[in-house]
Amino acid sequence: MENKDLEKYYLQIDAYLNGDLDGKELEELKLAMRNNSELADSVKSQIDARANIRILAEQKEKEQFLKQFEEEEEVLEPTIKKEIPRISLWKVASVAAVFLALLVFYFYPYQKNSSEFVLDNYLSDPSVSVLRTETTPDLTKKWMSVNDAFLNKNYQKVLTELEGIKEDSETVNKHGGKIALYEGISFLRLRSLDKSLLAFRKIKQDNPFYDQRQWYEALTLLEQGNEVKAKNIFVKIGESPNHFKRKEAVQILNQIK
């Protein structure tokens, strides 16, 4: 491979990871990666770097949420203390007994339903910044509308807006993985699980969004009650040292044994 060709492929890595390559350019880059280990390693390093950025972004969001929660708790605590009335010991015991009975009656059946616990604690939408796309001016407004609807958790509108974007075949070819991810998460949120799985499975293994597909597909399968297939995917994620959800996958596997 000539140096000028190799240089061209290195310059195309970002476009490849953003899902902006298609047709001949995409096939040429894939062939070059198979034939040149240094180029393939460079692509893998970029993927790992992006995964680490996602992990740091999610960690930062969690830290900000906890900080806000702690600040609100500090404000509320004095008020709560003032409003607590004095009650006798037997009343406390009676309330505790009733609460314990309700806990056993209502909560125990759900201990076996691990999928509900997992979704409540692990299902979160990816950052729109991860999903951003460079588009032609005539599609920019449509993508902005999709992003706004997604941020506002208006998942039905997301699906409606995507139908307009999918009318452009060139956009579908370039950004099919991104579109499928939006659709899959929206269907999952709307509990249309079969449609969600169909959307996720449009994202092929060589697509930059494949790691996202793995995570959300496993959550969808768990919600669907297909624990065996879900576990298989979580195991693969847990065995991938650079997967952006490796830690969470291991935690889930420990909970659904």
The secondary structure category is mainly alpha
Low-confidence stretches: 104-112
**Rg:** 23 Å
Supply the number of structural domains: 2
Determine the strand fraction and express it as a percent band: under 5%
> Oligomer, anyone?
single chain
CATH architecture of the largest domain: Alpha Horseshoe
Number of helices: 13
**What order do the SSEs take from the amino end to the carboxyl end, as H and E?**
HHHHHHHHHHHHH
Query: Which percent bin holds the helix content?
Result: over 70%
Instruction: Give a count of the beta strands, DSSP E runs of length 2 or more.
Output: 0
Q: Per the principal axes of the C-alpha atoms, what is the gross shape?
A: globular
CATH topology of the largest domain: Serine Threonine Protein Phosphatase 5, Tetratricopeptide repeat
Classified in CATH, the superfamily of the largest domain is Tetratricopeptide repeat domain
Distance between the termini: 50 Å
Mean pLDDT, rounded to whole units?
78
Assigned CATH class of the largest domain = Mainly Alpha
Characterize the largest beta sheet: strand count, sense, and whether it forms a barrel.
none
